[in-house]
Write a structure and sequence with these properties.
single chain, 8-stranded antiparallel sheet, 5-stranded antiparallel sheet, 6 helices, 13 strands, globular
Length: 281
């Protein structure tokens, strides 16, 4: 994506332009970048704007601050502080943690009735357009629950994705089913970009062949906990979090082609759009 910069740029504007280039355009509308100010800092600041959505980025020598802004919500402190100064991890954090909260606030102010399917279908169509552009067929249907809509597609690797929106909530729930090896690769894209070097929970308490394989993979990136139904809970309360279903046959050997299924929640539309190249293979 091409981002036009002012003639004279600060470090924050330069960094913001690099971050903007990594964020997806929504409905063909790219992000624009301009100099800005932040209440909590005198450091170089930039504003990233896309339609009615605005982000404030402050560049420090040792960390980066990001906040979201609406016409009647001017942030007085950062919503996220990262100990990273590179564009890619900043963009990843914005996609996972910042934009879903901003979209949720916008949806709440719109006060759209949960029974109105139009906002859900518009968002799912935007996701479906990117998937179809990758050469895959999509299928739209009403969700299993009241006031839900679902978009599904299959990939050459044997995975099946189902994206569901509930009511006027713009955050997606995603079900992924398919071979465990391909599923592991797909789930990784929704998790934090930096693996946790020292797992917080040993795998001694995880039982079941499929569960132990999935837990060994997931614990590199996030917390994993086995539940009473033998499934696995992973992720945190902020950003995407999920559940891995137990094996249909607990005694079966686990191979790369063994079937597995996970549910992932609190996924922003922007994150899904950015991951489309990885989720259509």
């Amino acid at each position: 994506m091409t981002v036009t910069l002012p003639t004279r740029t600060s470090p924050a504007v330069t960094l913001a332009a690099q971050v903007a280039a990594l964020l997806p355009a929504r409905a063909g509308l790219p992000w624009t970048v301009e100099p800005g100010t932040a209440w909590w800092s005198t450091r170089p600041t930039a504003r990233l704007t896309q339609g009615g959505r605005t982000l404030v980025l402050v560049a420090h020598g040792w960390h980066t601050d990001v906040a979201w802004e609406l016409p009647d919500r001017e942030p007085y402190e950062p919503d996220v502080r990262l100990d990273r100064m590179a564009p890619q991890p900043i963009a990843d954090t914005v996609l996972r943690l910042v934009l879903p909260v901003l979209d949720d606030e916008i949806a709440g102010r719109a006060r759209t009735p949960a029974s109105d399917p139009a906002p859900r279908l518009a968002l799912l169509n935007e996701i479906g357009h990117v998937v179809r552009r990758a050469g895959l067929a999509t299928y739209d249907r009403a969700g299993y629950l009241v006031n839900t809509s679902t978009l599904t597609w299959g990939t050459p690797s044997g995975l099946r994705f189902s994206v569901t929106l509930h009511g006027s909530n713009p955050a997606c729930s995603i079900q992924i089913q398919g071979p465990v090896r391909a599923l592991e690769r797909a789930v990784t894209h929704f998790l934090p970009d930096r693996p946790i070097k020292t797992p917080r929970r040993r795998l001694d308490g995880v039982h079941g062949r499929l569960q132990r394989r999935l837990a060994a993979h997931l614990v590199q990136y996030t917390d994993v906990e086995q539940l009473d139904d033998d499934g696995l809970a992973f992720g945190g309360s902020t950003g995407p979090y999920g559940y891995a279903a137990p094996a249909a046959d607990p005694a079966a050997r686990v191979r790369n082609e063994s079937p597995a299924a996970v549910d992932i929640h609190a996924v922003g539309v922007d994150l899904l759009l950015s991951l489309a190249p990885h989720l259509t293979r």
